[in-house]
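ERR on first pass: missing label on line 2. Operator R.T. fixed the label and resubmitted. Corrected input:
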Amino acid sequence: MITEKHNKSMQPKKGSIIVILSLGIIIAFITSSGKTGKKHDDSKIYLPAALNANLNSQAPDTLPLLSIMTKLERDVNKISAGIWRHDFQMIKKGAKNIANHAKIPPRQVKLIKAILGPDQFKNFVKTDQRVHQKAVEIAKMADKQKLDLTTELFLEMERGCISCHVDHRNKIVSSDNW
Ligand code: HEC
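pass 2 clean. output:
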């Protein structure tokens, strides 16, 4: 339809047709990735960027690690505030934000890998995954409105945050290359 309109209103130009066609392909691609995103299980936390954006449209694809951390802190505080107020919507929001947090830019991932070495890097990734997983579980438990179990999961998640700080943070931050 769009192509016809353009053809009538102006002399058909090869260039504009190509632009319209490629726009169509891009839109079709976005729409189809949106559909698969809806079917996606929440527990699969490592989604390709397009699907991740679909779950939480505010989450950018990548952010520097320090910015990710500042956001994580804010969302942990949100969950905590929700727990004190028995506000399960607030808990769920904070947990979902954590589960969908932005990815570390590839440049920083490489750097972290170089600083930590392969074994510690594996542990770094595992700890990050544990925090993700707990955040997904917190959101699910908040849906069931079980404050005690939600709180237990929250404390387990915080232990994950802290264990990465204890094990890896100093080494990364004190590196001359960081
Ligand atoms: C896999 C490792 C890892 C996990 C998991 C992790 N962090 Fe961090 N965090 C770091 C590293 C590394 C830094 C240092 C970043 C820097 O200074 O550039 C950091 C720094 C921080 C900072 C300090 C920011 C500042 O202004 O100096 C906060 C706050 C923080 N993290 C919160 C959290 C919270 C909350 C969680 C859990 C929801 C968490 N982190 C999970 C690795 C991790």
